[in-house]
Amino acid sequence: MPITVSDIKAHREQFDLGDIDTMHTTEYRRALSDGAFFWIDHHDFVRSTFTEEIFATNREQLDAMIEHLQQYRDKMPSPPGWMSEK
After folding, report:
1. Are 41 and 47 in contact, with CB atoms under 8 Å apart?
2. Is pLDDT above 80 for 1?
3. Is 82 domain-assigned?
4. Organism's domain of life (predicted)?
5. pTM of the full predicted structure?
6. What's the confidence (pLDDT) of residue 86?
7. Residues 47, 72: one domain?
8. Is residue 65 part of a domain?
């Protein structure tokens, strides 16, 4: 079943998500802690909260995902001062 705009809206409301591009890092950390983006299931698999898709099933896969995300980090800009915890 395709994801609808109302599915997205319900997810954002459930986790009280505003616009991520203007979200303070403290609020982003809260969303992460609340499981708004991903979570670990009863099999200890990392899953998407929204789609329930499995992202990683073991530590090596998770390490590979973190390494891949590190490549994105190196390309991304720093946040503006008003968004930053630093």
Report:
1. yes
2. no
3. no
4. Bacteria
5. 0.84
6. 85
7. yes
8. yes
CA proximity to 25, closest of 86, 83, 74? 83
The model's pLDDT over 14-24, given as tens digits with 9 standing for 90+, comes to: 999 999 999 99
Spell out where 1-86 has E strands: 38-40, 46-48, 54-56
The string of pLDDT tens digits covering residues 32-47 is 999 999 999 999 999 9
Residue 84 belongs to a domain? no
Euclidean distance between CA atoms 41 and 44, whole angstroms:
5
Residues 12, 43: one domain? no
Amino acid at 16: D
Domain count, the chain: 2
The residue range of the domain holding 66 is 37-77
Pairing of strands 54-56, 38-40: unpaired
Q: CB of 84 within 8 A of CB of 78?
A: yes
